Amino acid sequence: MKIAIDGPAGAGKSTVAKMVADKLGYLYVDTGAMYRALTWKALHDNVDISSGEALVRLLNQCRLELQSDSASQRVVLNGRDITEAIRTREVSNHVSEVASHPQVREAMVELQREMATKGNVVMDGRDIGTYVIPDADVKIYLTASLEERARRRYEELRVKGHEVSFEEIKQEILERDDKDRKRDTAPLQKAADALTVDTTGLSITEVVNCILNIVHQKT
Ligand code: C5P
């Protein structure tokens, strides 16, 4: 069984997808974390992120691991745990440019498709149902109002001790979605056969149960 969860920034995909995968005992693949990891490494090593070629060269030198257990999901690059480092605003504000390069996407999609062959999987991202695994058994388009998505991001950053402005966060989310929707290669869009789940006003448990119900109807 393959479950694809796509949607705009801050819709809660990673949290929900991980919980769904745990409940079902499936592998969880956070494809956004893969693009974020490459972005973090490029910024860290001063690699030009306007060059798709340079980014692919960098990716080929990296050993990227997504380690998932029931408690957490860790992102490890060349043996270094960068789970927290890839969630900064700096990475968020550069990742769409990195992910817009066709060569970068080609290399990432190859890795993702390989992971999807390993058995039951929940994969989340922007192009999973439309491009990475178009034959997925269940496709969910997870969304929420812009206000709610911005509020969640804002609170997440505040809890981590960051002084941020709500309006700035909202603007950044809007810009990232815009870039992800307008890029030429595999842009963010709802697959024709995806079910939309609007999480505005819903708790995480409610969203997880809603997706589990959809999955159970398919089995
Ligand atoms: O899901 P998350 O917000 O962590 O994704 C970060 C970024 O990675 C997205 O804004 C998008 O630019 C890129 N991405 C993508 N395709 C995916 C997953 C993420 O282009 N399948």
Automatic annotation (TrEMBL):
Name of the molecule in the record: Cytidylate kinase
Alphabetized SUPFAM superfamilies for the sequence: P-loop containing nucleoside triphosphate hydrolases
Ranges where the Cytidylate kinase domain occurs: 3-217
Nucleotide-binding recorded as keyword: yes
MF term (GO), any: ATP binding
Enzyme class: transferase
Keyword ATP-binding: yes
Pfam family, one: Cytidylate_kin
Family: Belongs to the cytidylate kinase family. Type 1 subfamily.
Assigned EC number: 2.7.4.25
Chief location of this protein within or outside the cell: cytoplasm
Any one GO BP annotation for this protein: pyrimidine nucleotide metabolic process
Domain of life: Bacteria
